[in-house]
Design brief:
Blueprint (H helix, E strand, L loop, with lengths): L1 H33 L5 H10 L4 H11 L20 H11 L12 H18 L4 H10 L1 H10 L15 H21 L1
Helix pairs in contact: 2-3, 2-5, 3-8, 4-5, 5-6, 6-7, 6-8
Length: 187
């Protein structure tokens, strides 16, 4: 009688482990579908080249275009990292890219290169403060600088909830949430 109960308990334990492993696999696969890493070789290359975590680049792309290379915003931003044409031309000039034209922002390699370079510029400009750099990526460096001038305590790290525009607050939160999940899934 005792042997029969132990056998049943052992079988239940085994089936529980199998079910857990199965559900974990489904969750893992689902997470990878929700947070894809398309263009991974490009993300790794330009992330390393510009000293930016490639998972942060993926988080920006997921927020900006959901990895659709032909994405266009109402404001005219283009490609994976949603680069405004004026910023693209300026960045390409600063980077020394030859034969650059606006249509090249639809090329994933060019778009990620320009976007990574620009994000690195913003990180340097805002002392590696990821919140300020992402805010500037969204609403412009001039707007972030102007906001910083109005703050009393400019030395402390920026608080997302203090950012001046609701859209920018939402954007920064979305990118940071994406980044968190990319790190958990792939990190």
């Amino acid at each position: 009688m005792v042997l029969g109960k132990k056998k049943i308990i052992l079988q239940l334990l085994i089936w529980s482990i199998i079910a857990f492993i199965g559900f974990s696999s489904v969750a893992y696969i689902s997470a990878r579908l929700l947070f894809p890493l398309h263009y991974w070789p490009l993300l790794q290359h330009y992330g390393q080249h510009y000293n930016i975590d490639p998972l942060l680049l993926a988080a920006v792309i997921r927020a900006e275009s959901k990895f659709f290379p032909r994405a266009q915003s109402e404001a005219g931003a283009l490609g994976l990292m949603q680069i405004v044409p004026e910023t693209g031309v300026w960045a390409a000039d600063e980077m020394g890219l030859t034969d650059f034209n606006i249509d090249k922002l639809f090329d994933p390699a060019i778009n990620i290169q320009v976007g990574a370079w620009y994000l690195r510029e913003l990180l340097e400009e805002f002392n590696e403060d990821i919140v300020l750099a992402l805010a500037a990526y969204n609403c412009g460096r001039g707007n972030v600088k102007q906001w910083l001038q109005t703050r009393k305590e400019t030395e402390q790290q920026a608080n997302i909830n203090e950012l001046p525009y609701a859209e920018t607050r939402s954007y920064v939160q979305k990118v940071l949430r994406n980044y968190y999940w990319y790190q958990r899934i792939y990190g």
